[in-house]
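Worked example 2:
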Amino acid sequence: MRQLIILVAALTIILSGCTKDTTPAAKPGEAVTPTTPVPAPTPAPEPTTPAPSTATPPAAGTETPPATTPPAVPEVPRPDGAKEQPIATQGQLEKVDFGMTYDEVGKAMGQMGKLISESKDENGVSKVTTYEYKTKEGTSLKVTFRNGKVSSKSG
């Protein structure tokens, strides 16, 4: 904010010092019409501290929800996944699109992969889960979910 005020003040000084008289010179015997200068823009006022609130406090026995409550993310139950890594193909992984649900991925891949990673927030709600599949060639395919929707895939 302070930088903005300094910038406005500097521009005001520059513009007021750089004005040019554009009135034509009077020829002998002609009357000169005076012009009024255009005032320079005024700088923005300094920010002030807001006045204390005049709102009445809530009645005794009532609660006000905190203003910073984040929107609740619906908890999506995650499947346990396979006990062993199921075999899948690259073609099956290509059918998986971002935003798909656990059920849609299970259908596209033939079944859910093995749960290999899960992270939770401070409330214990599952947020990010990764499932892994094997290929016949011995490589692995991974599908990661964020809040119950596919957020990445690799393989």
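Helices lie at 2-17, 90-94, 102-109. The chain has a mean pLDDT of 77.
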